[in-house]
Design a protein that fits this description.
This protein is α+β, with helices and mostly antiparallel strands. The chain is built from three helices and eight strands. An eight-stranded mixed barrel has the order 1-2-3-4-7-8-6-5. About 2% of the residues have low confidence.
């Protein structure tokens, strides 16, 4: 196809190409000289002659390359994912703690209550103390036996005392054939409990067990159950009943003591029974103490 350029235009084009070739050759020669003299080191392969003068596009000011934009977006997404995973782990840990706490509460609610032993508190005076029924004002608890500075302590103790729930091992009856005693046994030996029968001191041993079961009753009021304790002799038998057993104790010693002689209420290693009442009859300023040792046991027929 014939060129549409005129002859002068073709000539000018050839001159321009010759000029560009001369520039390329001069530049190549100059770079070769610099390379030989060590003034420049080529780190890219030789550029074809046709590419030396081609203009490379430059990034526009204020516009970041697409790759850098993608890298920033990826980092942001990764941060969001990490935070989401951490949040999920915290939620799961909290939920696990709540479930464990709920299970513990349910287990505690379903578990039977653990029985606790009644602590042994050293008494200040022997039980059953009272004024005689013929005294002014009649029979009433004898607070004069307790040191005045300790009376609030004793009152607080009996006010806070709770009666244990009856169990098959608790004493329920006492028989002393030698003096005609056959009476019920109740738990507790305060003023109100001794109105009901023979009182077992709370915290003392149960019948047949190693230790000291302490029983007390009045001698001149509320049935005069223990009026004749002073008539007992060593070798006399005392029978203490539970719901299923009868325990036989044999009298070993009898003493007249002061109300403050509380050593007779202390626990023992061997199974014994201690019977206590006021003494003498209608005077009640001392105590009579009968000690008996366990001799045997048997089932109730």
């Amino acid at each position: 196809m014939p060129s549409s350029r005129t002859k002068p235009e073709r000539k000018a084009h050839r001159l321009r190409e010759a000029y560009m070739d001369a520039l390329r050759e001069a530049r190549r020669a100059r770079l070769e000289y610099y390379r030989r003299t060590g003034r420049v080191v080529l780190i890219t392969p030789d550029i074809p002659p046709g590419d030396l003068m081609e203009e490379q596009p430059l990034p526009r000011p204020g516009v970041e390359p697409a790759r850098a934009s993608r890298s920033w977006w990826d980092r942001a997404l990764l941060t969001v994912e990490v935070l989401a995973v951490l949040g999920l782990l915290l939620v799961l840990a909290h939920a696990f703690g709540l479930v464990r706490a709920l299970n513990d509460e349910i287990a505690q609610a379903l578990a039977p209550p653990t029985p606790t032993a009644t602590p042994w508190l050293r008494p200040l005076v022997l039980p059953s103390g009272h004024t005689p029924p013929n005294a002014p004002g009649g029979a009433r608890p004898n607070e004069a036996e307790i040191p005045e500075h300790l009376r609030p302590y004793v009152q607080a103790y009996y006010a806070a005392l709770t009666i244990p729930t009856p169990s098959p091992e608790h004493a329920i009856r006492i028989r002393i054939p030698a003096i005609g005693v056959d009476a019920p046994i109740v738990m507790g030996d305060d003023w109100e409990q001794l109105k009901k029968g023979v009182g077992q001191h709370i915290g003392s041993a149960n019948p047949g067990q190693p230790g000291n079961i302490v029983l007390s009753a009045h001698n001149d009021i509320y049935g005069e159950i223990f009026r004749d304790l002073d008539k007992l002799q060593p070798g006399d038998k005392i029978y203490i009943h539970t719901q299923s057993q009868i325990y036989t104790y044999v009298v070993t010693e009898i003493h007249i003591v002061e109300p403050t002689d509380v050593q007779w209420m202390l626990p023992t290693e061997e199974p014994v029974a201690t019977l206590i009442s006021c003494y003498p009859y209608m005077v009640d300023n001392q105590r009579i103490v009968v000690r008996a040792q366990l001799a045997g046991e048997g089932e109730i027929p």
